[in-house]
Amino acid sequence: DAKTTQPNSMESNEEEPVHLPCNHSTISGTDYIHWYRQLPSQGPEYVIHGLTSNVNNRMASLAIAEDRKSSTLILHRATLRDAAVYYCILRAVSGTYKYIFGTGTRLKVLA
Amino acid sequence: NAGVTQTPKFRVLKTGQSMTLLCAQDMNHEYMYWYRQDPGMGLRLIHYSVGEGTTAKGEVPDGYNVSRLKKQNFLLGLESAAPSQTSVYFCASSFMGAGVYGYTFGSGTRLTVV
């Protein structure tokens, strides 16, 4: 499985946008890019995923570089409830049934 | 809609004791997974199942066994608990295994082996 690289931690002010980067230089053409977040003392929660085009949902936006070697999770207005560890994960379109989790980015939101 | 339910939520075991962790999902998902998470670490896959009656090994399967007798349940067993198995255990499920489908996780079981 291709690996991802994320900063260990980031800080943001409340109600400001947050851009969480992820590098995946060895991504294959059939790998989906998934983002999850883990709030304190909870299981990971699905945020968003995409293949080639940028994606939006009610939680966040996912911007994928044209060469797909990197992506950015965008939280448009950070709230205190968004403080969590954010994981960027690659999943093949078929044939692979498991996520490989890294250590993610710990996001701290300042009031 | 309960999603993925894990029982128990907390447990303390003595070294050498056995126990079973239960994961139940009500979303009719085919695929189910057991992960463990140690302090400050990401999740590591222990075992997974691609359908009723099937199981397969993940990254860290030693010391654990699993069973998927019913589609909605995935059991994780520790036959002889060791302190190294102190961890938080998460169960997850997905509709199918392909990358287009996301996972739903349970809230975890915190296990301490003394």
List the keywords.
heterodimer, A: mainly beta, 5-stranded mixed beta sheet, B: 114 residues, mainly beta, 4-stranded antiparallel beta sheet, 11 strands, globular
Helical fraction of chain A equals under 10%
CA distance, first residue to last residue of chain A = 38 Å
Instruction: Please report the two chains with the greatest interface, counting residues with C-beta closer than 8 angstroms to the partner's C-beta.
Output: A-B, 28 and 28 residues
In DSSP terms (H or I, runs of 4 or more residues), the helix count of chain A works out at 0
Strand content of chain B: over 45%
Q: Going across the biggest sheet of chain A, name each strand in turn.
A: 1-9-8-3-4
Low-confidence stretches of chain A: none
Secondary structure: number of strands of chain A: 9
Taking all Cα atoms into account, the compactness measure Rg of chain B is 13 Å
Overview of the structural elements:
The complex is a heterodimer of chains A (111) and B (114). Chain A is mainly β and 111 residues long. Helices cover 0% and strands 47% of the residues of chain A. Chain A has no helices and 9 strands. A 5-stranded mixed beta sheet of chain A has the order 1-9-8-3-4, with no helix packed on it. In chain A, strands 2-7-6-5 form a 4-stranded antiparallel beta sheet, with no helix packed on it. In chain A, β3 and β4 form a beta hairpin. The termini of chain A are far apart. By secondary structure, chain B is mainly beta. In chain B, strands 2, 4, 5, 6, 9, 10 and 11 form a 7-stranded mixed beta sheet that branches. In chain B, β7 and β8 form a beta hairpin. Chain B is globular, with a radius of gyration of 13 Å. The interface between A and B is medium-sized, with 28 and 28 residues.
Q: Layout of SSEs?
A:
The complex is a heterodimer of chains A (111) and B (114).
Chain A: E1 9-13, E2 18-23, E3 31-38, E4 45-50, E5 55-56, E6 61-64, E7 70-75, E8 84-92, E9 105-110
Parallel strand pairs in A: 1-9
Antiparallel strand pairs in A: 2-7, 3-4, 3-8, 5-6, 6-7, 8-9
Chain B: E1 4-7, E2 10-13, E3 19-25, E4 31-37, E5 43-49, E6 56-57, E7 64-67, E8 73-78, E9 87-94, E10 104-105, E11 109-113
Parallel strand pairs in B: 2-11
Antiparallel strand pairs in B: 1-3, 3-8, 4-5, 4-9, 5-6, 7-8, 9-10, 9-11
